[in-house]
Amino acid sequence: MNLIFRKISKLLFALVIIGFLMPMACDSNGFGIAHSKYVKGGYTFALYALFFTALAGLIIGVLLFFRKKIPVLIDWLIIVACMCSGLIPFFINVKRYSRNFQSGTYTILTAFALILITQVISAIRREKRGE
Q1: Which of 20, 84, 103, 120 has its CA 20 to 30 A from that of 78?
Q2: H helices of 66-102, where?
Q3: Does the pLDDT value for residue 1 go beyond 60?
Q4: Where are the chain's structural domains?
Q5: Integer distance in angstroms from the first to the last C-alpha of the chain?
Q6: ∠ at Cα 82 (31, 75), nearest 5°?
Q7: How far is CA 26 from CA 6, 19, 64, 99, 131, in A?
Q8: What is the H or E stretch that residue 117 is in?
């Protein structure tokens, strides 16, 4: 049963990708923001890291559905990398742009919460089973 929550956790990365492709701020998606003249190198890197770590998480979810063995440590590394690359720019810019955040940003934040909840449930169930 814990494997089901682990798979769900990885497939929820699709919501991060969808949120990235939706308008996030100023009627721009993540790629548009990354190429904006107002965004500096560190933010551009964080936005691309957000997209590609979410893509990696989704790929791991697909591999788990095909019963491939993936170490749980990789799950946590991808989750932490994806969340850091998405949350650091969000919290740095929350005061300046909070009125301009759009549905993509909130979709990503919701996906982060759901990913974390399902991954923790999976870890708790694995711990109870002694794996």
Answers
A1: 103
A2: 72-97
A3: no
A4: 2-129
A5: 12
A6: 140
A7: 34, 14, 37, 10, 47
A8: helix 103-129
C-alpha–C-alpha distance, residues 83 and 61, integer Å = 17
What digits encode the pLDDT tens for the residues 41-96? 778 888 889 999 999 999 998 998 888 888 889 989 999 999 998 888 777 765 56
Q: How many CA atoms lie within 13 A of 63 on its CB side?
A: 13
Q: Please give the model's pTM, rounded to 2 decimal places.
A: 0.85
Closest CA to 122 of 79, 66, 68, 59: 79
Looking at this protein, which amino acid is placed at residue 7? K
Backbone angles phi, psi at 46, to 5 degrees: -65, -40
Q: Rounded CA gap, 24 and 33, in Å?
A: 8
Nearest CA-CA partner of 94 in 36, 24, 35: 24
Q: Give the C-alpha separation, 64 to 3, whole Å.
A: 8
* φ, ψ of residue 99 in degrees (nearest 5): -75, -15
